[in-house]
Amino acid sequence: MVSGKNIAAAVSVTAVVAGLSYIAYFDYKRRNDRQFRRKLKRDRKRVEKTAEKISREPTLDDINEQALELLKSITNAKQPESPEEKEQYFMAQVSKGESLCGAGPAAYAEAACHFFQALKVYPNPVELVMIYQKTTPDLVFKLVMAMMAQEVRQKQARYYDVFPTEDKHVRIKDKNKLGEGKAKDKKPAKDADTKGDVVTPNRGLFATKDVAADEIVYEEDSVVSTLLPCAQNGKYCYHCMRAIPAAEAEAEAEDTAEAKSEAAEEETEEKKEPASDGIKCDKCAEAVYCSEECRQDAYDAYHQFLCPNSSAATANDFAEQAKKSHELAPILIAKFFGILVDREKKKELARALGVSDKNTSEADEYTTWEHLESMRYLELIPSATDAAMLHKLGELMSDSVPGLNEFVTGDRYTMLKGKLDYNAYAVHSAGDAEVPKETEDTHVSDTMRDDHSSSTVGISLYLISSHIAHGCDPNVQIVFPDNTDKIAVKALKPIAADEELRVSFVNPLLDVAARQKQLQSSYRIKCTCTKCETELAAAKENAAGNEDVPATPSTETIDPTAEGTPSFAA
Hints:
Layout (H helix, E strand, L loop, with lengths): L3 H29 L1 H22 L4 H14 L9 H20 L5 H14 L3 H11 L2 H20 L1 H4 L7 E5 L8 H11 L9 E5 L8 E5 L3 E4 L19 H8 L7 H9 L8 E2 L7 E2 L2 H15 L6 H13 L3 H24 L15 H6 L3 E3 L4 H14 L6 H4 L2 H14 L1 E4 L27 E6 L7 E2 L5 E4 L7 E5 L10 E2 L8 H12 L6 H15 L22 E3 L1
Parallel strand pairs: 10-13
Antiparallel strand pairs: 1-2, 3-12, 4-9, 5-6, 7-14, 8-9, 11-12
Helix pairs in contact: 3-7, 4-5, 5-6, 5-7, 12-14, 13-16, 14-18
C-alpha cells in the first residue's frame, strides 16, 4: 500500500519537474521568439502603468481628460422639459450616482456622470455643488467640477460661431488671425493689450455682405440703459427714453382747423400746466414712463429694487449714494443684475409652461452675463466710492438675488464698471427735443461713446455694437430711429463684405490733437488711422514754415498706473 508521504513526495517531484520544464520553455521562447519577447514587454508595461495609477492620485490633466470623455458620452442625452419630468430625472440621476459611489473607485467616473446630469436640471446649481462637496468622494466631486469647466470651455469656443445671428449680417472676428493684410489693425492692439510677447484677442465687427451708403446694417435693443440726471425731468421715459409728448403738443396735434378758434386756444392753455401725460410710478414721483408696458417692464426688472419710495429703506440710501458719486455705473450695474434675473426667470417660466419661441437660435443658450464676459473693458483702479456702492448694492438686492454678495466681488464690480466705460453708448434725443444742460449737481463722470451728433439723453449698453471698433473716419453711425434707446447701425459710406465696421467714439469734427487726447485719456487708444496720420503730417508741414506752430500736436501721455486712470485690457 502506498503511503501518504510517498504520494506527497511524488506530487512534489512532479511539480518541480513541471516547473523546471516551464522555465526551460520560457527561456527558450524568450531567446528565440521575437513575438513572444514583444508580448512580454507589452505586458510588463501594462502592469507597470496599472501599478502607477493605483499608487498615485490622478493629476489635474487626468481628471480633465476623463471629464472630457464623460461629456462626450452624454452629448446626445435628452434633457427633461417640464418641472415634473425634471424632478423625476433629478431623483433618478442622484440615486444612480449614490449607488455607484458605493460600488467603489472603479465606478466613480460613471457616478460623476450621473451627478453632473442631475446638476444640469437642478434650479439652484450652486447649492447642489456645495452638497456634492460635502457628501461625495473627493474624486467624484473633482470629476463633476471638471465636467462643468469643460462644458463652459466648449460653450465659449463656439460663441463666435453662433453670435451675432445671421440676420444681423455681421460677424465678430479676431483681427490677429486675419493675416498680413490686417497688420495695421494689429499694431494698436499689441501696443495696448499686451504684456511681453502675449497677444490678447483683438476682435472687431465685420460685415458679412455688401452694404450701400445710408443702408441700415442691423438694429439692436439695449441690454441696460438709464437717463442722464439732467434728463430725469419727467419729459423722457425712464425705461425706453422716448420723449413723452407734452399735453400741449398732443392737444395741438389732435385739433383740426378749429384749433384757431378762441375756445380751442383756451382749452390748450388749460392743458399747458402738466409737463407731460406720462405714467408715473405709483410710489415715487421721479420715475415717469411713456406707456403702461414700459412701467410694468421696468418694475419687473429693476424698479422694484430701485424705487426710492419703496418699503426698503436701502433703496433711498442707494439712490443718494449714487447721486453723490456723480456716476451712472452703480445704477446701471444694479439695473443689469435685476434685468439678468428677470430674463432668466421668464425663460424658465416659458420652459415650464412648454411655450416655445420660434425665433430662438443657438445664441439664446448664452446668458446675458456670458455675453458681457466677451466684451473688452477698461482696467480701473478700485476706489473707496466703489467699495461703498458695492456694499449698498448688496444691501439693496441680496434678498431678491440670492448669491449676489458672493458673486459680485470688489474685482468683479470694478470689471463691470470698466466694461461700461469702454462699451456704453450715448443715447441721443429726437432732433427737435431739448435736453437740459448738465449742472454741478447733475453732471456725471461716466465715459460713453458719443459722436455728438445731437443732444445726449442717456447711456446704454448693447451686446453686438460693443464690438464695433473706433474710427476717426467712421463708416457707420449709431442712430435712434424710434427715438428710444433702440439703435440702428447706419452705413455712412459703401461697405464691402468682410470689411470692419468702425464708429467714432468721440466727436469726429475735433482736430487731431483733441481727438487723440480724448481717445488716450478715456479709452487708452493710440489711434494710428489714416485720417490721424494725414492730419499729423499736414500739421508737421505747416509747422516747418511757421516757428510759432508746434512741430507736433499735443497728445498728452497719461500714466496708466496713476490713481483713477484707466488702462486698457481685453
